[in-house]
Amino acid sequence: AAWHTETGEEEQGVGLRTSQSCTMAEFGPNGDASPKDDVGSPDEEATTPPGMSVLYALVNASIVLPVLMSFGAIIYRDDFFRPHVSVLMKLTVVSGAVHQLCFSAMSSLPFAVGQVQDAGLIFLSAIAGDIVR
User: Fold this and answer.
1) pLDDT tens digits for 106-125?
2) pLDDT in tens, 42-78
């Protein structure tokens, strides 16, 4: 970007423009306070390349899959569930996957990652055990 100084000389590059009252960083091509042309407007939605999204999903799945399986083991620890534990583990994993997919797809935050939390896990385990007794 080029501009003329108070003495009439032309300066090149990005820098500070001086005025009588203050100095203002150059934001736009004309030295005004508008955003540069190469920066998107706030109304534009930031997009992540599909390959990067798949990579994020694979990393998240590799981290969360063992966690979901351990949640299933904690929830279904009663002897009543022992013959059905393989199906119940799969159900827990599918439930966690649906939760993550819905949370990530429907969130207004572009960086949202839905993960099942363990806050009520002990209570859920106690409820499942009490129901079968």
Assistant:
1) 888 877 777 777 788 889 89
2) 555 667 788 888 898 888 888 888 988 999 999 999 9
- Look at the pTM and tell me if it is higher than 0.90: no
CB-count exposure of residue 19 (10 Å: 0-12, 13-18, 19+):
exposed
* Distance, CA of 126 to CA of 80 (rounded, Å): 13
Write the CA distances from 87 to 25, 82, 84, integer angstroms. 62, 10, 6
Q: Phi and psi dihedrals of 58, rounded to 5?
A: -65, -40
**Total count of residues recorded for the chain:** 133
In 1-133, alpha helices (H)? 50-75, 85-106, 121-132
Element (DSSP H or E) covering residue 43: none
Interaxial angle between packed helices 85-106 and 50-75, expressed in degrees from 0 to 180 and rounded to the nearest 10: 140
